[in-house]
Write a structure and sequence with these properties.
This protein is mostly helical and about 60 residues long. Helices cover about 70% and strands about 0% of the residues. The longest helix has 21 residues. It is elongated. The relative contact order is 0.14.
């Protein structure tokens, strides 16, 4: 088994981390590490969530993007 295969998160861990990112809640270190492995549709989901969180933060700071 390669390091790449050994480090792959479970589907459940990825779903949970993506759901928490979509909800805009603070992620812990383990969830952040799982999201670093996002690829394909999971990565697209993560990028969309990150954009929404960024935009909400800018708006809250009075600097809408």
């Amino acid at each position: 088994m390669t390091d790449h295969q050994a480090a792959r998160p479970t589907e459940n861990a990825m779903r949970r981390a993506l759901r928490r990112a979509r909800d805009g809640v603070a992620l812990d270190v383990t969830e952040a590490a799982v999201l670093l492995r996002a690829r394909g549709d999971d990565l697209a989901d993560l990028v969309a969530s990150a954009g929404r969180v960024r935009d909400a933060g800018l708006e809250a700071a009075g600097r809408p993007g």
